[in-house]
Amino acid sequence: MGGVFAARERESKDSYLEAYFANVLDELTSDLKHATHDVILRKLLLSYMSLYLAQTIGVDYHAATEELYYLLRKDDGKNSKIAHIIAKFEEKIKKQESGMR
After folding, report:
1. 100, 2, 86: which is closest to 37 by C-alpha?
2. What confidence category does residue 78 fall into, taking pLDDT thresholds of 50, 70 and 90?
3. 2-23 b/e with 16+ CB inside 10 Å = b?
4. Cα distance between residue 78 and residue 27, in whole Å
5. Who's near 24: CB < 8 A, 6+ residues apart?
6. Of 43, 54, 56, 81, which has the most beta carbons under 10 Å away?
7. How buried is 64 (Cβ within 10 angstroms: 0-12 exposed, 13-18 middle, 19+ buried)?
8. What sign has the CA pseudo-torsion 16, 18, 22, 24?
9. Predicted TM-score of the model (pTM)
10. Which residue, 84, 97, 99, 71, is CA-closest to 38?
11. For residues 53 and 64, is the Cβ–Cβ distance under 8 A?
12. pLDDT tens digit string along 12-43?
């Protein structure tokens, strides 16, 4: 897929990227309507972690996601660490919101 995309003309790439960019925003907008903020933060955090792993260990995103979920199933302490980071995000957001009032 990557090689095919790289060979496309700029105009073709732009329309392809625009469509997928819109899809991502639509999905996140739907999440905002139907999920709690902690679910959305967890989704974003896990996506970031998968991307980071893919870049760092040199595998594709799907493989990195599989490895990440393997680690999370193997060691519940890692889920606790993620929950702790999400709680810190929430704490920071609440502090910023209370400072704006």
Report:
1. 86
2. very high
3. eeeeeeeeeeeeeeeeeeeeee
4. 26
5. none
6. 54
7. buried
8. positive
9. 0.78
10. 84
11. yes
12. 899 989 999 999 999 999 999 999 988 999 99
